[in-house]
Amino acid sequence: MLHVELRNWADIMVIAPLSTNTLGKIALGLCDNLLTSIVRAWDYRKPLFVAPSMSTCIWEDFFTERHLNAIDELGIILIRPVSITTASGEREHAMAEPSTICSDGVASLALVHLYLDVNVDAMLFLINTHCTVTSLGTNGKPVSAIFLN
Amino acid sequence: MDCSDSASVKAKSEAKLGVPRKPRVLLAACGCVAAVKFGLLCHCFIEWADIRAVVTQSSLRFIDRASIPNGVFVYYDEYEWYSWKRMDIELLEWADIMVIAPLSAHTLAKIAGGYCDNLLTGTVRGWDPRKKPIFVAPSMNPFMWKNPSTEKHCKKCIDELGISLIPPISQRSGEGEYSTGAMAEPSDISRNVMISYSKFQKKNVGGV
């Protein structure tokens, strides 16, 4: 099963952007597609990062707060969205910058006491080029990551 | 006249004659690999019960229609509003027992969260486990079974909703390791339900 293979293969998982709908699915444990099935089978000794993106009215909604609490209980690491105003004057909580996602990820790895020899430049490059599944590593120590967007 | 109508007419005539009827079991299947055993499960139950089956759209990938015993009416999601009747309500009223085997991780989450977006979950949503027992036999890969979400959902289903859990069994994987997550054997599910239902009946008769 592909979701089990990917779950076993990866050392890190990053979901960026994370939609409101998928946030709800993860919080409630639904697993009706490949992405949510990987999360549902995830081993939380390995870090899982999410970078949500949604409109401000949804971000400030009661359900979003409840869902964020639920994913926090699971041990998912939240990379907070940034508040912006669109050209049409609407307020959005946009996905954090790829560079922020990357640096937050590396900093969080240190926080969870997980020693991984990650090539930061490679991670940045891979996020910016929208690579879906990739393998990273330096000094002969392989590190796997899944980027789902 | 459709199958469900003829069955209800037969049941009413038997009730008038005072004929003791078999327990009515509503068997349900979700979309996971263990659904290949659904035909076998039907055969195990038909020995001691009247059965009807409810299957989800995704379970149809695994169920061989030919393996289901003759005379067992199978309800799909398209039947939700069958001949202008709410089929989930019809099935609720007809059944004495409901058994969901296999129960997928996804449908487990739906039941725990109160979702009712198909015929199966709609029937569960209206079910009262204090009056009629409902059994679930989960089936999922070991990683999903060990995931913290599963524990939370099972706790919700058992403690709050009153659903009876038939736990998954340990099986040897290709690598030679034993891990839990596979659906219990159909014969064991059938026996478990039969024993539990007879206890449930005695308790309810004794309580009156």
Automatic annotation (TrEMBL), chain A:
EC assignment: 4.1.1.36
* UniProt pathway: Cofactor biosynthesis; coenzyme A biosynthesis; CoA from (R)-pantothenate: step 3/5
Please name the GO terms that the record assigns under molecular function: FMN binding; phosphopantothenoylcysteine decarboxylase activity
- Cofactor or coenzyme needed: FMN
PANTHER family linked to this entry: HOMO-OLIGOMERIC FLAVIN CONTAINING CYS DECARBOXYLASE FAMILY, PHOSPHOPANTOTHENOYLCYSTEINE DECARBOXYLASE
Q: Which family does it belong to?
A: Belongs to the HFCD (homooligomeric flavin containing Cys decarboxylase) superfamily.
Under which name does UniProt file this protein? phosphopantothenoylcysteine decarboxylase
According to its UniProt entry, this protein's organism is: Glycine max
Automatic annotation (TrEMBL), chain B:
The signal peptide annotation in the UniProt record is none
Q: What domain of life does the native source organism fall in?
A: Eukaryota
The processes (GO biological process) annotated in the record are: coenzyme A biosynthetic process
Query: Which InterPro entries does UniProt cross-reference here?
Result: Flavin_trans-like (IPR036551), Flavoprotein (IPR003382)
Q: Pathway involvement?
A: Cofactor biosynthesis; coenzyme A biosynthesis; CoA from (R)-pantothenate: step 3/5
Keyword set, alphabetical order: Coenzyme A biosynthesis, Decarboxylase, Flavoprotein, FMN, Growth regulation, Lyase
Recorded family membership:
Belongs to the HFCD (homooligomeric flavin containing Cys decarboxylase) superfamily.
| Primary gene name | LOC100812130
Give residue ranges for domain Flavoprotein.
24-192
Q: Which GO terms describe its molecular function?
A: FMN binding; phosphopantothenoylcysteine decarboxylase activity
Q: Where are the transmembrane segments?
A: none
- The EC code for this enzyme is 4.1.1.36
A GO CC annotation recorded here is: phosphopantothenoylcysteine decarboxylase complex
Tell me if Flavoprotein is a UniProt keyword of this record. Answer: yes
**Descriptive protein name:** phosphopantothenoylcysteine decarboxylase
Top-level taxonomy: Eukaryota, Viridiplantae, Streptophyta, Embryophyta, Tracheophyta
Which cofactor(s) does the record list?
FMN
Q: Which Gene3D superfamilies match?
A: Flavin prenyltransferase-like (3.40.50.1950)
